[in-house]
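User: Teach me something about this protein's shape.
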Amino acid sequence: MFVRKKHNKSGTVSVQVIDKSKGTYRVIKTVGSSSDPGEIERLYHQGIELIPKLIGQASIDFAHHADRTFVKTLENSIQSHRLVGPNLLLGDIFDQIGFNQIKDDLFKHLVISRLAYPGSKLKTVEYMKRYLNLQYDVYKVYRYMDELHGKYKQQIKQISYEHTLKILGGAISVVFYDVTTIYFEAEKEDELGITGFSKDGKHQNPQIVLGLLVSAHGYPLAFEIYEGNKFEGHTMIPVLESFRQTYQIEDLIVIADAGLISKENILELSTQGMKYILGARLKTMSKEITDKIMAQSVEDGQQSMIKMADGSRLIVSYSAKRAKKDAHNRERGLRKLEKALAGGKLTKKHINNRGYNKYLSISGDVDITIDYEKYNEDAKWDGLKGYVTNTNLKAGQIIEHYKELWSIEKAFRISKTDLRIRPIYHRLTHRIETHITISFCAYKIYKELERQLKAKKTDKSAARVIEVLLSIFAIEVTLPNSQ
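Assistant: First, the predicted structure itself:
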């Protein structure tokens, strides 16, 4: 049995427990339906909890067995059940990667549970008791997290790195770096959990900043955590320096988003002898550079190149498809401003450079207006995208490398949705780091599962496979007269 989310024409999603033991899909129970994502997830986990009970009610059909009394007796003889699907496959991948070098069973259970039933440590303990018949006190789990941080944090990263090195053919020359924020389920700040700009929209919650380094195809390499109000541009260099020193890597190209670009970062990367491909904020560059950009005419799919004063190159590409999207987004942003202005919802506090608020202006002390001249001026940038690099790669290669930044965005999305890395419930810094370490391992397994599914040319996603694994149970049966 497994739990299915069925999308209805009405826009709602029905959560159903499905049985395929007889070769065809059969709805055993509809748990409920909703259009609210949170309620859908609640119904989904309620469905998972129903499966053990429904297994005991399901018919065991032996087509060639004439003694129906025996079948009925068998149904009534189920003594216990245990979820084994996740450990059969995900546990095997755990071992293949090499995480079994850490000989603690609890470590493996915590990592697999993060994939199969993500939640707080209290929820994890309940899951292991209910589905795995494992008895762990939550305080023992907390104490183990203290031990895990001190003994195994670096070893875990090393194991992941060596496995990635193997599947990439023995060399890592290109890495991708980005940051995200992870909020706490708490109201008070502490030395690490501090309110700041939240990428989850949880500006009122304390948070940490997570810096993640991945290889080509999105395999996780390293991570560090920072205070919640840390400027993201100041996180990149420490992570890269630590990574290079740990694994003695000389030639490395780092690729990062425009939000991480600064004169200090570029200077430091060059000083450290590192190559880089960074997103460029074209509109904020010097007038000399922006004039050169406007002077160069590029057609759809073409690129132009401008030499920078520090010896780097600025690659500017143009895409008609991107231009259409930029124009659409700009117009949509303008319409929202006009609607808010008409409704009297805009005040002086909205005069800033965030998003499309840059088109707002103020006259006198109170009159908020829209600067349509500035809005129309922005149209000349539609479809243009820039990249700053000190590599010798061709423009097309630079753009193709940069496009792979989606892999790290996907890593954050999977971590926050499938693995539910947020919110964080821990308060001690070393336990927070251990929580991230466990999620790091779980994501590594997720990516390896994806890789193996792709190699087998299956159309099943990793998320779908994990969903199916949650329906595989081992059942203990004691027959009458058995000893």
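Now, about its shape. Residues 477 and 483 are 12 Å apart (CA to CA). The two ends are 30 Å apart (CA to CA). If you'd like, I can walk through any region in more detail.
User: That's plenty for now, thanks!
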